[in-house]
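The protein record passed on below.

***
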Amino acid sequence: MIETELESLNFPDAPKMVSATFPGPKSTAALEQSAQTESMARGGGRMPMVMDRAFGVTFKDPDGNTFIDLSAGVGVSSVGRCHPRVVAAMRAQSESLMHSMEVNSTRRTELATKISEIAPEGLRGNCITYFAQSGSDALEAAVKFARRVTGRHQIIAFHGAYHGVWHASGSLTTGTNYRKGFGPFMPGVIHAPYPYAYRFPFDTTHKSAERIAGEYVDYLLNTPYTAADDVAAVIVEPVQGEGGYVPPAPEFLQLVRKACDKSGALLIVDEVQAGAGRTGKMWAVEHSGVKPDMMTFGKGVGGDVPMAGLVMRKDLAAKIPDGSAPNTFAANSVSAAVALTNIAILQDPSLDLLNRAHALGQEAQDYIRGFNSPWVGEVRGRGLMIGIELVEDRATKEPLKGERLGRLMNHVTSHGVLMIPCGRYTNVMRVMPSLTIPRSLLFKALDIFGEGLASLRG
């Protein structure tokens, strides 16, 4: 019954390509116009796709082609696009109150209360939320507030990190495209190795990547002469996103927590991409049992509308001066109403979406491994946050060449599937659909991906 209900929340003909060419003529014209009028500094501006209408995990382009979206808007559409309950909430709220400036509104306060109820242990029932509009905004606030609260200035982040693209957040992010030519960056940032076991730079014969990386953070924070002598916070993704969809074992965050406790640094977890149920728990940090001091969220909480924020313990929030970080449009009433509806759908016991994400994610990983493709080096992930690392050779782990990746991308897109690569070599294909994706559509899309892998043999 649940699968039938979920299937009804999508265009019934997906995937279906009806134009004689791809992109079709209307999409081609739209892409040409976009290139002349919009900045291509945004991530997907050059992709050969145009969205015209969307429903659930499916969308149509201007030519009438219907696609299955395995990207969920890069983790945004946690309950699918244009969910009827979300649309109804937007419509109802827009008729009573939308923008309320920085003053209180009923929906804003209701959302802050709900976030306190669902926050991870350590914050749950004992937190204050600062609302923002994007993950970058939330990370900017996290750095600003951590420095104010601790009186310190240094921040530790990790290799492979993506925390945003503004000043402080961009300084924490390590991707070359986001940094090269844009310096100098915020001083005081120290980057440490993330436990990316598949490509870890140190010998893991006797210790796991998680233990080595965690102990290195302890060394930085609690050993003299490391120059990390004024660290306000360690900021970490519980599952690394743009760096390659890397899910470390719980030991890593547990060791980082202990190191922070010894040094007095705050532990801030970035749940912008991994949160909102994507990993099978409401927050990815919950897999480790670690209690963070602060947490950023975004993407899947707001879904179809901009919504992000920073959650912090009440004792820390009490040290932030009133009026020190205004944000004009944050948590407007429509966004708050949508976020509340998204959370209600994620928590709906009749759907059980979080447990379903865990089980479906495991099934999907096994299915992808079953392709037995020579181009697949590793399949990893938690819940519906799956990374497929593509390589030229399994033994050498040489990343898949750009030409071959381009052929693969062309195959999946021209057959009606949207997937977005990530990773340090742009060779990790993401499977991160909405948590409401029907099994039938997920495995149709994976079959098309598998056919694309097989086509690379030529």
